Structures are given as structure tokens and as C-alpha cells.
Fold:
Amino acid sequence: MPLLPAPPLVLPPTPAPASRAGHRLRASAAALLLGTLGLTGLSLPALAQDAAAPAAAAPAAPAPVRSAMDGVLFYQLLVSELELRDGNAPLAYQVMMEAARRSRDEALFRRAVDIALGARAGEQAAAALKQWRQTLPQSRQAAEIETQMLVALGRQTEARRALEAFIELTPEPARPAAISSLPRLVLGGEQPQATARMLEETLAPWRQRAATAASALNATAAGWLTAGDRSRSLEFVTKAVQRDPADPGAALLAVELMKDQPQAEALVRAHLASAAPAAGVRAAYVRRLSTDQRYGEALSESRRLTRETPDDAGAWLLQGALELESGEPRAARDALLRHLQLTEAAAPGNAASQADAAEDSDEDLPDPIAQAARRNRVQERAQAHLMLAQASEQLRDYAGAQAWLERLADQDSVTVLTRRASLLMRQGRIAEARALLQRLPQGSAEEQRTRVLTEAQLLRDARQWPAAHQLLAEASQRFPEDTELLYEQAMLAEKLGRHEEMEQLLRRVMVLKPDQQHAFNALGYSLAERNLRLAEARELIGRALEMAPGDPYITDSLGWVEFRLGRREEAERLLREAYQRRPDTEIGAHLGEVLWALGHQEEARRIWRESLARDADNEVLQETLRRLKVRP
Structure:
């Protein structure tokens, strides 16, 4: 709401505060005075000195500092803050503005703006900024805040003038950094498109100057990215990379644009091929590839990242996660141990275990940045311990896996309980594992279904298919429209050979959730696997791939149905694409069979050997080798 006009303030002839304010000063005089003085950056003179002579050994007292604050200014600041404390923002604003005009002090103009903003009086804040700019035309701070204010008010033309002033007032050496900060400064309001256009127009001359071209191109691109116009953003990123492929800022924007602008990947690769690619760009590229389920490429880039930056603990953690995801537990273990070695060397006090967690606190680190860094290291080390437990489990080192889990501080977390239950399942201790899972939270409906899904997955991994199916069937009675429960029940029905039940459940999922690509893919793949209704299978899988373009598992299904239809070359192309994205054991089994049928037997054997190394017990792989009577 706008500030109400306040009555004119009549200043007394002396700086002594009026009696009206006297009683209010007693409660927190020190706090009020310190706060008031902090606004101006001015210091008070010594108000009194000890009448007694100092001891001979005592150092001489420093000479009093003469303050630039006169009595009238002191009184104005005091009254303004007291009025604000009592809820009279209009008078507080008016008095503070008068003090700012008299003193020409930036801090007081800023305080007047803050008072207006606190009262939700945008026009008064804009008026204070205008007066500030007129009084101190060389103030960068005023131009910066005025830009933000005018953008928030939707006054784009005035905002552009203020933004131009801010850039011009910035010293030349600091100008590129200032330009780079502009998207954060001006974007985020209710008119992002108009603001991005204003930013593009304002930066036009700076994109032509050598010293500021890179930052201006990137800022323009970031502005359009924030505004949601990703194709327009790509235009400026392309210009930035063409101008300088080594520019990490442009490359990072290109990584972000890869999500829905495929052309952006070539820009990222151009940077990575430059003389000095930034490690941060490669790490961001790895994460993007992983998000896009291109795990094979992500792992290759991750390994290169650790070769280029062998002392980067985060790079080793990322590689460990990808090795584990790709079915390489030994390589994952090596990478994760390297991460722990580096983080321990960097911070010996990292809390990795329950004992460490009790001792390791932020009390000895007063710096918030250092505290955040320590917390991040502790979290990363906990992730490493959890993944090491998983890698050990896959290597059948169950004692080692248990030892890694015992290092984690929160032994009752869902993740730790689940991993411990998985260890018991793998050792055939089914009853103990299921009893342990009863400790998972079950208070809410969501917690109940999470426990059921977790238990069913572990039973499935342990090949306890009837028990898992029964558990899910009972849960589906309680949650009849839960598509995740229905889908998992369908997958177990297939394991038990109940294909009619599986199809009914999957079609129920398709009705309840038409965008559930996994249901379409699962039914299509099942038909192809049984060599039934292949045209329908191809249509179902095609619909799934439309919902999730590039998904390696769905691409594998499409390749498999093409093979069943006799289109071997197309099947090979699709399966190679899927295997490159994700070198999964089952995809490898399919690709190997297609290559074998095409006469590429040595390559087929190589892929089968790779797949056996990842998961020698995989049913699809073992069935393929038995049927073809192949010994890789």
C-alpha cells in the first residue's frame, strides 16, 4: 500500500531529543544508536573521558575522531528509526529522506528505499531512488537498485536508462563481471520476456566491443534462457562460441540448452575440443549426459575428467556413481575410494561415521562458507560410503558392504535400512530382511506404499517372485488406482507366466495414466519377446518412444521387435544406439544376437563378454547363449 503523507517535521533548535521520544530510547538505546550509526558510516566523538589520570604503563588513549554528524542529523536518524519501530513508516520515510538530502549520504538514501519497500510502497521507493540519482549522479549503487526497482514496477523504458547508467558508471576493468551479473539483477519479475528484450537492446553496443563482447553475449543468452525463449538464447550462445570456443560461460549455457536444443551439444563439444577446456564444463556435460540416460558417453567423459583433474574429489565421486550405474562395481569401488582419500586429505575432520558425526560440528568454523563446504564434504562422503556398500554387495562381499553401511551416521534412515535388507536378501535371509523392512516408516499412506514397493523390489531381486506378487496384489487392493503398484504387479505376473493378467494390468495403467511410457513399452516388448502381434508391439513401443525420445531401454525394445520382424539392419542400428547410451547387460544380449545373425560373430562375442563381466547371472543373456549354443 502507498505511504500516507506525513505532517511536516519541525526540527528543534538543539539536538536534544524531544520528550516524546525519551521514554522509548531507554529500552534499547545502545542497539538503536549502533543501528543508526551503521547506516551512515560516520563515527561518534568520544562523549566523555575518565577524569582520573591513566596508569603510567597504560598506552595513551587515541585522539577522539571528529564526527561528520551534526546534532540535527543525529536527531533525524534517531526519530526516523524510532518512528519506524513504532509502525509509523510514512514519517520514518520522510525524516530519513530529509536526512539523506542534507547529508548526501548513500547509506541514508538506501535506508529510505528500504523503509519504503518494507511498507510495500513501490512509488515512494522509486521516488527515493530518483532523488538519490539526482543528488549523487555517479552512484553505481543507486543505478543498480533503481534498475531492479523499475523492472519490478514494469517501467522498462526507465529501467533501460538506469541500466545503461549502471554499466557506464562501472570502472572498465570491472565491466565484464558487472555485465555478467545483469541477468540475476533484472530477471525474475512478472515480465520476463519484456525484460529479456530490454536487456538485449541495452547490451547491443557492448556486444560489439572486444573487452565486453563475451560477457554481453552470455548475459543476453542467459536473459532469454531465464525468460523461457530457449531458441533465442541458443542464437546468442552460438555467436559466443563462434567468437571464442574456449569461453566456459557460453559452454555452460550450451550444456543447459542441450535439454531441448540438440544443436547446443556441438557447441559444448567445440569447447571441450579447445586448447584449455574448463573442468566445470566437462563435469556439467557428464551430468547432462547422465540425465539424458546416455550413460556410456557419460562414463567415458567422466573417466576423461578424472584423468585431466586427478585431484578433484567431486569428479571421482561422479565417476564412481556412473561406474556403479553401468554395472562396473570394481571400477566404482576404486573411484569412490579415491574420493574418500582426497576428501580426508583436504579435511581430516570429515564426519563419515557415527563417532565422527558426534565430534564434527560447525562450532570451530565461524565462516558460513567454510561451514557449508564442510557440510557438503560430509554429505558427499556419506554418499560414497553408501555407494561403496552397494558396490561391495554386487561383488558379493557382504561383510565389506555391511562395514561400509556401519560408517553411516543415520542407521535408521530409509536408505540404510533398505541396503541392509538387500544384503540379507542376497544371503538368503529372507525373513530377517522382511522383518528389518518393518522398521521403515508406515504412518502415512505414502510411507506405506513406499515400504511395499521397496520390499517387493528386494523380493524380486532375490527371485522371490510369488511373495513379491502377493505383496503387490494385496497393496493394489488398498490402492486400486496406484499406477506404480499396478505396473510392478504386472511385471511380476509376467515373471510367473501369467501373461493375460500382465496385459490386463498394463492396459489398466494406460487408462489411468496415458503418459506412462513404461506400460506401453513393457507390453510391446512382452509381445515381441513371445513373437506375438508384432505390428501391435511395434506400435506400442513407438508410442512409448514418442513420450521418452532416446530412452535406451525403449530403443532396445524397438530394436528387438524390428529383429523379430526380420529387419535386421534397422534392428542393429537401434540396438547399437541403445547400447552406446547405456551398456546394459540385457541390451548387450540383444545386440549380440542381432550381430550373430548378421554374421558379425567376433563382435557379438566381444559384446557378450562385456555383458557377462557386468552381470554373469542375467537371465536374458544366459538364455541367449544357451539357445545359440555359444561360449563367448
